[in-house]
């Protein structure tokens, strides 16, 4: 412990020389000393936790590196995000990446005698493939419970291809403890590997399976078909934006509670009879706000039991006169509904929303997110908008309590009409919801940070803009007596 106390007194983060050349030499010597001290600490300390504690006393660099490497859990997220930012600034060189990779190898060597590993999360595709492969194999050999591979450069020259992620590779390891598997931005995935993972005989404890922005291998020139035949323990499933996948079949998952299927139209999804407990779902719709189901049989298998539903509206076609849904299309238990409107699509019309709200008679909360700032073109206004539709409507939604509109802020001053149509939609819903008690108007839009998927920030908004939005909405609601009992929030 005396050594630890001495380390606490050290300050290795500053150069003492006054000249720039001396500072550079001192900084280089300090970096070399840090690396030597890391190896020395790891070799002398009895446990990895002691190494983490003592090295954290020396320098904040180490505290960021080792913070999550304890208790049988390895997580490299903090370094990954810093490395991505530095790479964007042109400062992340190969020497720095190799230095970090060597430290990870040293940390893993200290866990070689541990029988099991609780969680392993590798979150950078800026490192060499052989490094990632060794870390992945180490985690599987330690019978890891939670495995996450998050690579942010999707469809780029940096995207990692896990060509060795095959059934033969997985069969070499004991996956019976695996409870959660998350793959984000991984390319060259084999359909046979996914079938191996979804097999209950291979992964009997798997409760969470996530595939996001992944690329599948072609099968004889054709796209893959993901099939969940039978799983008695799976509770959460996410298939989001998968390339080279033609169809998803969910046959039997008695305990499945949460299902995300983004990037697939309803015609690409087959629901079986063995999903009796599904409560939360994210589905994709290209037209009609999910009112155009392929058949009543498909609707009856999951929709009547849903309590929370999010709909990604990606179609760009305008539907000024949508056809009413059939009488059997009723979400009997749906209490929360979210609409994610693609940036190229116009805001949904009042008639579209009316038809959807009629199909959800006990809905308590409606949230609408307007298009992200993803560089795919300017938003489009609603052509042929009927501003008097709500005032002349005789239909009322008596159960709606909360209304949220996110991303009302336009991308540029030239598209103020978009904002006006969004606020008209809000006003129309407010005037026809007598039980409404809370309205949230969020003027921010989400944007991808420097093009990196998974790193999201919100666009800047001002008090003046929020005041302008508030004034516009109050103008739309002139003469509406219901506003006195509603709490409005502008953010």
From TrEMBL:
Protein name: F-box domain-containing protein
Pfam families, per database record: F-box, LRR_At1g61320_AtMIF1
Domain F-box: 35-68
Domain At1g61320/AtMIF1 LRR: 173-446
Gene3D superfamilies referenced in this protein's UniProt entry, alphabetically: Ribonuclease Inhibitor (3.80.10.10)
Transmembrane residue ranges: none
